[in-house]
Specification:
Number of helices: 2
Oligomer: single chain
Distance between the termini: 18 Å
Helix content: 25-40%
Number of strands: 3
Length: 101
């Protein structure tokens, strides 16, 4: 995210940042307008858990297992994958900035 902010400042493009926190999960957001006037949003959405629709019932079910030790739905194994995904998204955003120059 810092690399994108640096590029936007070099190009003198105005931007706005926001931090959204919900349920203990933080997501950084960055908003700016492209040369055509369209609003662009960039966020680190990889922080959001991916849940199947069946895991979101309309009525909250009672929590029967209070002994869960990992905060991740998939355990600690996915942390490495999240780091790789975050790096890939940052590289993609940086390459998009280079293309638009």
């Amino acid at each position: 995210m810092e690399l994108i902010i640096q590029k936007l400042e070099e190009m003198q493009i105005e931007y706005v940042t926001a931090l959204v926190k919900e349920g203990g999960i933080s997501v950084d957001q960055l908003f700016f307008h492209d040369p055509d006037g369209y609003m662009i949003e960039i966020c680190n959405c990889q922080n959001l858990p991916v849940l199947p629709l069946s895991s979101c019932p309309l009525k909250k079910l009672p929590n029967r297992n209070n002994n869960l030790t990992t905060s991740s739905l998939y355990g600690n194994k996915m942390l490495c994958n999240r780091e790789v995904e975050a790096l890939m998204l940052e590289n993609l955003a940086a390459e998009m900035m280079d293309i638009s120059i």
